[in-house]
Amino acid sequence: MNGRPVKRSLTLKGHRTSVSLEDAFWQAFRDIAAEKGMPINALAAEIDADRGMEVGLASAIRVYVLRHYRG
Question: Among 23, 20, 25, which residue's Cα sits nearest to residue 10?
Fold first, then answer.
């Protein structure tokens, strides 16, 4: 397993942005979106809207994934 972050593009509110996450987080993020029956961009937009301005989007996604699996 590669622990290096991989940069991918997401579209939030019509704007493209790049997010760097490790492969394991990308896979878990995709799995959660599929479980919720929503596109990954829509889930990212929800996370983006809920995060504070002092928190980066990649960090907010990692915390979201962690909280999801911790129950």
Answer: 20
pLDDT at residue 53, rounded to an integer:
87
The whole-angstrom separation of Cα 57 and Cα 35 is 21
Cα separation values, 4 from 24, 28, 34, 42, 68, Å: 10, 15, 24, 25, 22
Q: Domain range for residue 34?
A: 5-70
- Whole-model pTM? 0.92
Alpha-carbon gap, residue 57 to 48, rounded angstroms: 6
Q: What are phi and psi of 13, to 5 degrees?
A: 55, 40
pLDDT of 22-38, one tens digit each?
999 999 999 999 999 99
**What CATH number is associated with residue 38?**
1.10.3990.20
